[in-house]
Amino acid sequence: MKKIDWKRFNLACWLEIILSYFLPFKVTDAFQYQIGFPSPFLSVYATQPGTSPFTSMHLNPLGFLFDAIVIYLVISVCVSACQNLRLTA
Question: Of the candidates 45, 46, 20, 15, which has an alpha carbon nearest to the alpha carbon of residue 35?
Fold first, then answer.
């Protein structure tokens, strides 16, 4: 089992945050939007104007961690594949 490369994990977390801004939201019903890739980690409830955004959001930290781990694994596989291609070339 390899050690965790914390720089790659940090990159995966930032990529998750950036992707959540650029990818479209998932509308579950008339007033709830879910944000996150590959699985949603933030739910925003559309409420009346004048309501604090912090009271109309639900953050799922385990969902965020799961998404970051998935992106970390994808980055690790891509880096390993590139290194193997360089060794064979």
Answer: 20
End-to-end CA distance of the chain: 27
CB atoms within 10 A of CB 69: 15
pTM of the complete model: 0.83
Which helix H or strand E contains 52, and what residues bound it? Answer: none
CA distances to 7, 23, 28, 50 from 62, rounded to whole Å, are: 20, 20, 20, 30
Helices (DSSP H) in 1-89: which residue ranges? 6-22, 61-88
Alpha carbon distance 81, 71 (integer Å): 15
pLDDT by residue for the chain (89 residues), tens only, comes to: 678 899 999 999 999 999 888 888 888 887 888 888 888 999 888 777 777 777 888 899 999 999 999 999 999 999 999 999 887 86
Angle at which helix 6-22 crosses helix 61-88, to 10 degrees, equals: 120
